[in-house]
Every structure is written in structure tokens, then in C-alpha cells.
Sequence to fold (690 residues):
Amino acid sequence: MSELRYDPVRRTWVIIATERGMRPIHVQRHDKVPKPVSKSVCPFCPGNEDRTPPEIMSLKDPEAGPGAVRWQIRVIPNKFPALTIESSQERHGKGIYDVVSGFGAHEVIVETPSDEEQMADFSVSHLRNVFSVYRDRLSDLRRDSRFRYIIIFKNHGTEAGASLLHSHSQIIAIPVTPSLIAVELASNREYYLNKERCMMCDIIHQEIEDGERIVINEEYFVAFTPFASSFPFELRIAPKIHKHDFSVVDEDHLQHFAAVVKELLMRLRKVLNDPPYNFILHSSPPVNPRPGKSDYWTSIADDYHWHLDLIPRVTYIAGFEWGTGFQINPASPEDAARFLREAEI
Amino acid sequence: MSELRYDPVRRTWVIIATERGMRPIHVQRHDKVPKPVSKSVCPFCPGNEDRTPPEIMSLKDPEAGPGAVRWQIRVIPNKFPALTIESSQERHGKGIYDVVSGFGAHEVIVETPSDEEQMADFSVSHLRNVFSVYRDRLSDLRRDSRFRYIIIFKNHGTEAGASLLHSHSQIIAIPVTPSLIAVELASNREYYLNKERCMMCDIIHQEIEDGERIVINEEYFVAFTPFASSFPFELRIAPKIHKHDFSVVDEDHLQHFAAVVKELLMRLRKVLNDPPYNFILHSSPPVNPRPGKSDYWTSIADDYHWHLDLIPRVTYIAGFEWGTGFQINPASPEDAARFLREAEI
Fold:
């Protein structure tokens, strides 16, 4: 049974997920590297659907013949979830500490029937479909008022935390507001109250004016290396017109978004030799009024700006980083943007 | 020239350290794994002292004969520093962003003349000497009022960020307060103001009473797996009697501290099969009065409690963790403490 625990010193939550009876061997480093699995065993490959929990939704291929693979994208509950929807939602103290039961949702989006195709290989229209599945799952989970935050993310490659090679992404819905999101919301809110402008809108305006950190600037989206990038070749993709909530993005924007993300993945693959990467979709949290917090959430549509953070995992996180909460980045964002712009893909 | 940049969204600093003319090949993952270097090349081995910048201090072996290796522990400036003491200390804005010049100190403590001996192998008295060098360097750097924080840490193993196998640790002194430290200081302060007790003293009291997360409980120190451990087998070592500042710890405490750390490293090596690890010394920041902040810093001696955080690096940091700022820990701290206690070393 997993649980969320609060660290009173660092003021952050942690999920202790020990469903499976941990033994030290399970956490030894050499045991963590995923091995390629054959198609007959891979739980995400067509034909092995019974190896996963019952599917939540799927996108069928309308043109497929009777014998062909029927689904193109498939959403399933995670077989080894960090949090479960069946748990009761309990909060209690334990002396100086705080505990919340491991209530939540943990879903997997199998992005393709193919065991080999990676996201950078997807057609733009297939990638748009993947993002429309993100949108629909986000929209559905936002209706559950017990969730404080819903995160959609992708781990590509072993060092980025992927445990299966078959291309997939994940959704986790949690009953607390993560510390990092609380900071992001607070800084956006404070900025908006001071200036009556969205901070991300101002950042985008300045980035386009400066130009040196821009990688793609098209009709609807801008992609740039953030000024204070924590990691080499880190990228941020944001819509140019203010919008707080990814769950209501229209098809036209999804199509452009897919084209931009595909191009960035191809540029990263070229420049960094197929790096492991994570991406994280930052959309506004569901606005669930709760005691003493209502005014905090009312204007979130004005001050939050959805975006995708795309982080190649090419540096190690060492003692300095754990001890301070900030990173030493050996690549300037300006150089990184230039290399990405100039790459021939 | 490196610089510190502030991320206005996440409210955290980042060091952009691009002294050496970055090319993408330098940050490609496969290029980051340190290769064992021979003794004739290792800059930390005796005989190669001219391969490092001039030493800051060293501890000699008083009993060594004329031909023997003279130093036992050696402190040198980092040859590729993240920050440099020669930089002027400049702060300026750049549109919406904030920049501080890359002013600071970055030192390396070569912990042993031996290329093979790891910290877990050190004798307790040698480890005490290493910690007394930490103390003396901390004490010296604390006198420079331009530093807001001084961190001492160790990276052991490739995945923990060590770039050389020869056992060493590092000190970085920085001109800003890191976000994580700011949170730690604030939570300690707030707790103290409410209760007139140190939070860590209360945590230690509760941990000793509970018992299930205790690994070592001796005369001066307690070592336990924190209740909200972010990582499997994470450990915290703290003095049982309140003390905020490691730079004034006495010899008797250092001796006990060394014995406890050595035992923990041996237990970790046994249980997790020589894992990569980081440790980070958390000592109170230097109290440098500055405008509008004086009352914040005056009672730090009462509410801050020094400690060492020891983190085996056995899990990968994936998208969820980057997106929320909190970790999914597959090992319960209670199980981890039990395995560590029961290990035969």
C-alpha cells in the first residue's frame, strides 16, 4: 500500500510506493536497466493486451482491415501504480509528520502498436492523435474534484527512467499540490497581481525579441531554451496566445504542436545522438474550491500559461544539485539553441 | 565565464558554467562516463601535484619517512570551477531575468593519496581527519562575507556524478542562497517561532522514540532513514545535542561522526552492492547581516541543526520527478532501516 509523506524540512511530498514487497535487490542499480523484451512478451505489443489491466480508452484505426492491428493508441491503468484509485483518501498526522493515503490515478498511454517506432519517428498526424489522447484523458481526470494536480509526462531511454522500450507516456493524478507546482503557481500569481500580465506571455515576448534562445517560432507556438535552463539543451514549448489549460486546446493547435514537438525531437536526436529525455506537460491544475483557498484559484485562467518542458538527460545529478536544489549546467542556452537551429534534419 | 541565472517561474538559481567552449559532443551522455586513469595520469595521485592548481592546504603524515608520500589529505582549487573567486561580484537584471556573475569558490578535497582506497575503507582516524579538513575549510570560507552559502559534498561513483575515481569531495561557496536552503531555513525558523524548539531536535526525539527508522544510535549521533525519504536507503546523520554550525564541531564529536559515517558506508556497500552515492553536509549558512534581512538571521543558532544527508543513487529521476519536484520512492524507509541494521559487516 503506497502513501504520500510530507517532508517538514524541505516542505515537499514524497510517494512511498512499496506495493510489491521490496527487497534490497530490487533497488540495486544494476537491476534497474530495462532489457529489450521480445514482442511475444512486451505487454504493450498487439496480441498481448491481456497482459495489461483492462483498457481505459483506445484510438482505433478506421481503415484497418479485419486481420490488422485494431488500435493505434491505447490507454491502460499502470500495472504497478504509484497511486491507486481504489485507495480511500485519508489524511492524518503522525507526530511531527503528515501522511496522505496513496490515492490517485496512474495511467499509461501506449503511443503506438509498433515496438520499434520512437516518438521522433511518428507522423505529425499520429503525434497529433497522441496529444489529443493526452487532452482527452486530462479533461476526464480534471472532473474528479479529489485531484489537486494531474501530470502527463514521457520518459524516453533508460537513464530517463523508462522501464520498457515500447514508446509510451504516463499520466499521474495526485491528491496534493506538488511543491514545484505550488512555486510555479505562486510566482505566476504574484507576477500577475503586480502587472496584470501573464509572466509566461512576458517571457515569450522577451524571448522572441532577443531571438538568441529561439529554436522554432511558428504561427501558434514558440520553442526556446529557457534563459535559466537547468540542463543542457533543455527546451520549452509554449503557445504564443495565452491559454492556461491543455484540456481545451483545439485540433488546429494540436496539429501545430505535434509538428513543433516532432521537429524538436528530430533536432535533439541529431545534435545529441539520440539522447534519453523526459518531457512534462505543464497545464493549470483543476480549480477545486477548498476552504481558505478559493481566492487563490479564481483567476488561474489569467495567470497560468500551459507549456511543455523537454529535458534531454545528458548530465548527472550530483551532490551539489541535491544539496542546493539547483543545477550546474555546462551548456549555455544560447549555444544550445544555435546548435539546434543549425542542425540539418 | 560562468554566471548564475534566476528562473522566475521555478524561483531557483542555476549556474551556467561554460568556461571551456561547449560543443554538443561534450554533453552527449556516452561521453560523460569517467574512465579509470592510470596513476601516472591521475591528477590526484602523489607525484602529479603539478597537474593541479597550487594547493590551499594539506594534512601531512608526521611519521612518514623522507621518501614516503608526504601528504595524507590535500585541498586544491577545482581545475574546472563552476564559479571563480577572481570574478567580480556583479548583479544585474536582463529584462524579466536576473543575473549574478559567476563569483564563488570551488575546491576539491583529495581525501587520500591512494588511488584505490574508497571512503568506506578509510580508518576511523583518517576519516576524522577528512572531516576536520571539511571543518577547517568551512570555517575559513565562512569568514568571507560575500558568500551566502557554503556546501560540502561528495560524489561517489559515475552515476552519482564523480568524474574521477580517486576518492575526493568538493566545497562550493556561492553568492546566493539556494532555493532548497531557503526553504529549509524558513521551515526551521517558522517551527522555532511557533514552538521555541528546533524542528530537527523534535524529529530526532520522535525517531528515537519510534525506533523503526533508526540505523545507528550512539552517544553523540543518531543515523536514521528519514520518514519522508525521497530515495531508497537515504540516510540522515545528526548530532543528538543541538548544534547549528559544523565549523565549530570539536574533535571528540568528529571522532564519533567518522565512526558512524564509516559504519553506514560499510552497511550500504553490503546491502546495496557498493552503490553510487552522494552525501551533502548541511551546516548553517554564514550569518552576514544584509539590508532587510537582519532579523531573519539573528537566531539561526537556535533553529538550525547541522546534519549530513547520505543518498545512495539507485533509482532514476524521471519525468514525474522533474515535473513535480517530488520523488517516487520504491523502498519504505522502515524496510531500508531494518535491512541496514541487520546487515552483517
Q: What stands out?
A: Chain A touches chain B through 97 residues (CB under 8 Å).
